[in-house]
Specification:
Blueprint (H helix, E strand, L loop, with lengths): L2 H14 L2 H8 L3 H15 L4 E3 L4 E3 L1 H29 L3 E7 L3 H16 L3 E7 L3 H5 L5 E5 L7 E8 L2 E5 L1 H6 L14 E4 L8 E6 L2 E6 L5 E3 L2 H9 L4 E5 H9 L4 E3 L4 E2 L7 E7 L6 H16 L4
Parallel strand pairs: 3-4, 3-5, 8-11, 8-12
Antiparallel strand pairs: 1-2, 5-15, 6-15, 7-12, 7-13, 9-10, 9-14
Length: 304
């Protein structure tokens, strides 16, 4: 028995939930597929499938063995891919999922530079503010902000997620009242609506002391951060923004940092930008190369 091909056949049968569809997918005859499964069952001394005229389903032994087979084939595939890329350069496809605001803030430029450096590699990048989609999407790499403790995922901080208050010079000219803890309720606020942000109070830190302030009412509330950023630049109000997003606008004067002697608790988004990837992809060379590249990219811009 060719063990490798038999395991690949088993995984394909499970994915297709059909011997005939697996045979078509693999370019084999249905009898060859059945023979490979029978050989595995004979070696194990246990049935992998319960088959009737109406349906087919894995036995408990089949479920455990198919899961192990999928992991083993994945590890072998990753090792082969890594060796090939070490010899011939990065190639194939790298699938990335990331928070929506990362795209225009830094990820688009980083990906463009990475593609120029690795012309044989294709990138598939999906941007979303749906955390469940991002963390369950099956991508090679996830760029995430906030805590992530899902089993089977490796988490590596690659940048800082410091948040601050800012507004445009136009807003500050229109509303000259200084922005202080005592006057927050008197300003126009641009608020980001997100399931992870359910608190009714903000926490500011100054010299190690915490100051708890009731969250002001929003003048503009939106679930799209880039929409709010555009409104802040247009002078519509005060925005809480992460450093990695605000830095270019603070540098050229389009935004002004407010209450600079206070630190705002990053809340549910956490203090870091995280690179998250499945544990079985830990050895994938292209994943590690991209993480190192992005970390250096963020460091060069002071976002680490």
């Amino acid at each position: 028995m060719d063990k490798f091909n038999a395991l690949a056949t088993l995984v394909c049968v499970v994915e297709q939930n059909s011997f005939s569809r697996a045979a078509e997918q693999l370019g084999k005859t249905p009898s060859a597929v059945a023979k490979a499964i029978a050989a595995l069952e004979s070696e194990l001394g246990s049935k992998l499938f319960e088959r009737t005229t109406r349906r087919m389903q894995l036995t408990e032994a089949g479920r455990l063995y198919a899961q192990a087979a999928r992991q083993a084939l994945g590890c072998l595939g990753s090792a082969s891919e890594t060796i090939g890329q070490m010899q011939h350069g990065l190639h194939g496809e790298l699938r990335i999922a990331a928070a929506l605001a990362f795209g225009p803030a830094f990820l688009a430029e980083a990906c463009a530079q990475f593609c120029l450096a690795h012309p044989q590699l294709r990138l598939q990048v999906e941007l979303s503010d749906n955390d469940q989609f991002i963390l369950e999407s099956g991508h090679d790499l996830i760029l995430h902000e906030g805590a992530c403790d899902i089993p089977g995922l490796i988490v590596k901080p690659i940048g800082k997620n410091q948040v601050l208050l800012s507004a445009s010079p136009a807003y500050l000219a229109r509303q000259p009242l200084p922005v202080t803890p005592a006057t927050l309720q008197q300003h126009d606020w641009l608020m980001y609506k997100h399931p992870a942000l359910g608190r009714h109070y903000w926490t500011f830190w100054q010299a190690g002391a915490a100051l708890r302030i009731e969250q002001p009412q929003a003048r503009i509330l939106s679930d799209n951060y880039d929409f709010l950023l555009a409104n802040a630049l247009a002078g519509a109000g005060v925005l809480i923004t992460p450093w990695w997003s605000a830095a270019p606008y603070l540098a050229d004067g389009r935004l002004v940092r407010l209450m600079g002697d206070y630190e705002l608790d990053p809340d549910a988004f956490g203090a870091h930008i995280l690179a998250v990837y499945p544990s079985h992809r830990r050895a994938a060379h292209k994943v590690q190369v991209f993480i190192a590249f992005l970390q250096a990219f963020l460091h060069a811009r002071g976002y680490d």
